[in-house]
Amino acid sequence: MKKDYDLIVIGSGGAGMMGAIVASRNSKSVLVLEKLPKIGAKLKATGGGRCNLTNTLESESFMSSFGREGRFMTQALRALDYKGLIDFFYKIGVETHSPDGQRVFPITHNSSTIILALQKEMQKLGIEILTSSKVEKLIVQNSQIVGVETDSTIYNAPNVIVATGGLGYPQLGAEGDGYKLASDVGHKIKTPFPAMIPLKTKEDWGKNCRADTIAKVELKIALPKYKKLRAKGDLIFTSSGIRGPVVLDFAREITPILEKHGEVPILMNLTKGMNEDEIRNIIKNSNVPIIENIKKILPYSIAKELCLIVGVAELEKFKNIAGVKRDKLIKILAWTPLTIIGHDGFKMAMITRGGVSLKEINPNSMESKLIKGLFFCGEVMDLDGPCGGYNLQWSFSSGFLAGINVI
Fold first, then answer.
1. In 10 A of CB 107, how many CB atoms?
2. CA-CA to 191 of 20 to 30 Å: which in 2, 113, 331, 339?
3. Domains contained in the chain, CATH given
4. Could you tell me which of 61, 35, 26 has the C-alpha nearest to residue 134?
């Protein structure tokens, strides 16, 4: 027998569960449809299972971290900023803390704590949850959503929230379902690219430097058209390339360029912002082997590799090195080149860049500008940020805003 609801939510991630809870608190009858056997699968994996919920940045700084599209979040953050999110979870039994004063975690540092609390709240509110239920189609009549169709059932509702996420972590059910659903009813989809992902390099010397995490690295793209793109943070060398927070953040810029050019030359400042003159002053004024002075600013493993690249013997003294090699050494210490040639695709991507075009979504409500009663929230939209609680806060805030606008 068909059943009517005030709201159907497609997807049971952070955005979907938040939207369902808020709408239900406003006396709406809600059905959540999840295609996997359990709810919150991707949320469970967030932050390596520790669930970095949000961070303590004020809204202006938070939005600027998302780039030029960040202001789209203005109303969502007014509805639910990080303080509101912390209070929301406190009221449903989850205590949080911020060990470093920035990132916010449940005190258990376990994502299951978040999922169980949200599940318990949905059950308390009487929200109906159907797992193993994949939505195949949005049903629209006269530019108004009227329901959804699964492979076996039609469910009626004048409001639908699409909270299906992106393409990252396909092993957790991400298949881009929301993109097809949105596209089929006329929405434009910005091409999805993997983001928050380790990168592979043409050069292989980094595999000898895996023991060291390099703090405060700055990355920039060595192509004139993209010279303004930069990122800062910790970097780790791997057997095939680079990873670490700065790489995960910068990957969202790299992957579309890589698709276009085939490879992307980058430059890394591994010396905490030192310029060539500062580096020269450190490594020139001593009668000891050059490697001893370079070790003052870089781990030995990296110092050794960079000396090899420019053809400088590590036991040689600075004054005995030929002028051309001196200049090459100083330049490579200031800005170390690498060439990005690939990545492992969406299977390793934590976040997706791209998605439903923001131009077709009302930022004041998360409602479609094309179809009345159709809402989008979270990663399915063309908006993604760096690691550190940004994307989960956006998911919860957009879900909250969508939920309170269900009429």
1. 11
2. 339
3. 7-193+352-404 (3.50.50.60), 199-342 (no CATH)
4. 35
